[in-house]
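subagent[fold] <- orchestrator: predict structure for attached chain, return tokens only, no commentary.
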Amino acid sequence: MNEESIEDDQTPQTDQTYDNDQTQENDEDRPLRIRLRSDCPCGSGATYNDCCRSYHLGKAQPKTAELLMRARYTAYFFRLPDYLFGTTHADTRDKDLRKQLDAYLPTVMWRSLTIISSSKGTAEDKKGKVEFSAQCHEDGELKDLYEHSRFRKVKGNWKYLDGRG
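subagent[fold] -> orchestrator:
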């Protein structure tokens, strides 16, 4: 098996790719290959395969709050509710979060992420903040989201706390 092909059970499932080619092809793996070789939606400049994919598969943990922010944005982009649920701090996680994500994710198409600033949140820190803006289409409208997110480490892993930073 070459580096560009992977098993279906090793890839987060989504119905959104950022491939603009709408032609029909017989190759069922084409969207996956495009995703793996395309720039990661988080804006890091790396490919999805070399960036957020290992976090989504549970093979690695983000070492900084900013990396978790980027991985969470990409999880919103690819509509990965399990990753979003699992990376939300238990102290602030709404009891209905899974249902909320299942209802919300299909209604939004994410367009871009801009990290404005980060404070603390390094591999050595226990708390961190990331200020960001993101654009999406929701209900046919282009919307801007601005947030100053707080993150906290739990057992060595970063978790999203809230947007009250």
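orchestrator: received. Logging for downstream: The chain has five helices and four strands. The beta strands are 108-120, 127-138, 141-154, 157-162.
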